[in-house]
Structure formats: structure tokens, C-alpha cells
Amino acid sequence: RLFVDEPLGPGARRIDGPPAHYLLQVMRLKPGDPVKLFDDRTGEWLATVAAAGKRDLTVEVTGLLRPREAVPDLWLCAAPLKKGRVDWLAEKACELGVDRLVPVVTRRTVVDKPNTDRLRAHMIEAAEQCDRTALPQLADPVKLPALLRDWPAERTLFFADEAGGAPALGAMAGAPGPAAILIGPEGGFDAEERDLVRAHASAVGVSLGPRILRADTAAAAAVALWMAAAGD
Ligand code: SAM
């Protein structure tokens, strides 16, 4: 099962680069073998290997197995974390069905420029492994004040605040519709940032419980709670 970064449709298609390496050297596919392809646009397609070279292969795409899934309207706005932790976060955002991952640069953010290629690669791998037909969009990093200034009014911003707030599950169940979750960096938001977010018209401060969670854990827990509240 493989992600292809261009629209799929019936007909022959050449695959090269790392995906070809995976299919030829790891999966050891031979002519006649089936393979499933998905593109994050049309859905998942069945294909058959038509020819296999050393570094590339040609597949014949035959039929649409399922259209691209509907994705819950949830954004995850999270401060970029150190490598490893942010990779995990991107993977879980994809598995849990987040529609858009927005890296938010805050005063205590340690990594200002996350490696978006690497994050996308982690999301693609998660989608391949977890039978997803859709990937989260990966937004350009944005500073917190700019994020709040340009915020779409109709989207509730659940601000995960370890200092306290309404219990997250109830607050999320009580505010259906387009939503986003805001998670701070390893060092948390500073007092001024916290005031700025809390004063925003779309923000709802929520607590994930009395224990302080690591930022990546908080992100996954908050997304899971929102999905449970939304029935998604
Ligand atoms: N120092 C740890 C780390 O390295 O990950 C903890 C960081 S915690 C301050 C980072 C973010 O997780 C916070 O800004 C907040 O958004 C979220 N968070 C952690 N625990 C939380 C809780 N119990 N309730 C709400 N949000 C929480």
C-alpha cells in the first residue's frame, strides 16, 4: 500500500525513487503482483505490476477501491517540538484524523523552523500503515500573534492550558463545528501569550486533567477527546 503524490486514475504509471525501492527491494514485487495506491485526492486504487526494472517499475492502475475518506474538521495548532517528539506528533495527528497540522511558533519554541519534508514523510508513512486515504495538510509555520490575528471566527480554538480550564471533553462536546486545538511547546506558553489566547473571541481554555503532560502527549490526548466528543 503506497502513497503517490499525484492524482491517480486508470492506466499505466511509472514509479521510481524511494517508493520503487520499497516495492522492489522490500516488498519484492514481481510482474502480476497487486498493489494498492492512494493519492490524498481521489482515493485508493488497485493496480498490478506490469514491469519491474532494477530501480523503477510500471504499474497498471485498474479500479477505484474507495474514494478519499471524509476527514473531521479539526486543526491541530502545535508548537514545533524537538526532533523525535514532533515526528511522533505528526504521525499521531495523521492516525487520529486531524485535517490540518499548523506549526505555531511561540516565545519558548525551541525549534523555529520544523523540517516540513520530514514531518510530511512521517504522516505519509502513518497513512500507508493505517489504511488512511487522506493526509493532514501541513501549514507553514506561523507566529502565535499572527495565528490569532487571522483566526477564522467560526472555528473554535480549544486552548489546552495546564494551568486549568473547563474539562476538555465536556467543553468540546458543547461546541460542535469546525475546531482547532492549541498546544504549547516543551516550556509551555508564557503569561503574556496565555493572556493573549484567553482574550481571543474564539478561544475556549480547556484542561486535560490535573497532571502536566508532555506537549506531544497533550496533543494526542486532546485530539482523541475531540474525536470522541464529535463522534468521529
Ligand atoms: N515540559 C513538558 C514537555 O517537555 O513536554 C511539559 C510541557 S507542557 C507545559 C506543554 C503543553 O502541553 C502546554 O502548553 C499545554 O498546551 C499542554 N498541556 C500539558 N498538560 C496539560 C494539561 N493537563 N491540560 C491542558 N493542557 C496541557
From TrEMBL:
<dbReference type="InterPro" id="IPR015947">
    <property type="entry name" value="PUA-like_sf"/>
</dbReference>
<dbReference type="InterPro" id="IPR046886">
    <property type="entry name" value="RsmE_MTase_dom"/>
</dbReference>
<keyword id="KW-0808">Transferase</keyword>
<comment type="similarity">
    <text>Belongs to the RNA methyltransferase RsmE family.</text>
</comment>
<dbReference type="InterPro" id="IPR029026">
    <property type="entry name" value="tRNA_m1G_MTases_N"/>
</dbReference>
<dbReference type="GO" id="GO:0070475">
    <property type="term" value="P:rRNA base methylation"/>
</dbReference>
<comment type="function">
    <text>Specifically methylates the N3 position of the uracil ring of uridine 1498 (m3U1498) in 16S rRNA. Acts on the fully assembled 30S ribosomal subunit.</text>
</comment>
<dbReference type="InterPro" id="IPR046887">
    <property type="entry name" value="RsmE_PUA-like"/>
</dbReference>
<dbReference type="GO" id="GO:0005737">
    <property type="term" value="C:cytoplasm"/>
</dbReference>
<dbReference type="InterPro" id="IPR006700">
    <property type="entry name" value="RsmE"/>
</dbReference>
<dbReference type="GO" id="GO:0070042">
    <property type="term" value="F:rRNA (uridine-N3-)-methyltransferase activity"/>
</dbReference>
<dbReference type="Pfam" id="PF20260">
    <property type="entry name" value="PUA_4"/>
</dbReference>
<keyword id="KW-0963">Cytoplasm</keyword>
<keyword id="KW-0698">rRNA processing</keyword>
<keyword id="KW-0949">S-adenosyl-L-methionine</keyword>
<keyword id="KW-0489">Methyltransferase</keyword>
<feature type="domain" description="Ribosomal RNA small subunit methyltransferase E methyltransferase">
    <location>
        <begin position="73"/>
        <end position="226"/>
    </location>
</feature>
<feature type="domain" description="Ribosomal RNA small subunit methyltransferase E PUA-like">
    <location>
        <begin position="16"/>
        <end position="61"/>
    </location>
</feature>
<dbReference type="InterPro" id="IPR029028">
    <property type="entry name" value="Alpha/beta_knot_MTases"/>
</dbReference>
<dbReference type="Pfam" id="PF04452">
    <property type="entry name" value="Methyltrans_RNA"/>
</dbReference>
<protein>
    <recommendedName>
        <fullName>Ribosomal RNA small subunit methyltransferase E</fullName>
        <ecNumber>2.1.1.193</ecNumber>
    </recommendedName>
</protein>
